[in-house]
Amino acid sequence: MSARLDAQFAFLMEADKLKQVIRATTLADGSRRENSGEHSWHLALYALVLADHAGPGVTIDRVVKMLLLHDLVEIDVGDVPIHSANGEAHGSAEVAAAEARAADRIFGLLPADLGTELRALWEEFEAAVTPDAIFAKSLDRVQPVLHNLASGGGSWTEYEVTFEQLEARVGAKVARGAPSIWTYVRARLQAFFPDLS
Fold it and tell me: What is the pTM of this model?
């Protein structure tokens, strides 16, 4: 039992480092950039509150688990914002390989049974083919949009983000997992970008 607890607490102490990973997105009030630990917690809350917008077959407790785990690899890899100058790297084979190595290391800290279980949830989120993962991915994409809207543009100003980029990089993923949420958010984006016809 002591060895199992040693491994579990080693993982939990390692996970604390996620609070040191600074993201491109600011807090909703624009006062500072959020960290990845805050982002993961906020997304878990999104899943609980927005569960009624999930599609058929979605199990919210699994979505919450995925969202709590999804960015742990950033402890090693860091945040790769989709709108930054390095945004092309987001989702690249190079970043995916680095994240897989990070997942090996981080989930490998756990006892084998638990590490395998949590790693499988992380992989499911990354693949985004199950209803749970599709909904989780949609929330992961929409939360930064709402922060940027609330802060008057936030990191969009810094990265010169356009409505078209948001539709291409965010809209399709959100609409796939939460169409009613995308309809709502898209209307707010159209109001934010008044030059749209």
Answer: 0.93
pLDDT tens for 58-97 read 999 999 999 999 999 999 999 988 765 544 555 678 899 9
| Rounded CA separation 11/162 (Å) | 39
- 146: helix, strand or coil: helix
Give the span between the Cα atoms of 108 and 184, in whole angstroms. 40
Q: Residue 111: inside a domain, yes or no?
A: yes
Q: Would you say residue 124 lies in a domain? A: yes
Q: How many domains does the chain have?
A: 1
**197 within a domain of the structure (yes/no):** no
Q: What is the mean pLDDT of residues 34-45?
A: 98
Query: What is the b/e burial string over 118-154, where b = at least 16 CB atoms within 10 angstroms of the residue's CB?
Result: bbebbebbbebebbbbbbbbbbbbbbbbbbbbebeeb
Q: Would 166 be classed as within a structural domain?
A: yes
The string of pLDDT tens digits covering residues 85-136 is: 544 555 678 899 999 999 999 999 999 999 999 999 999 999 999 999 999 9
Instruction: Tell me which H or E stretch contains 23.
Output: strand 22-26
**Residue 197 pLDDT:** 42
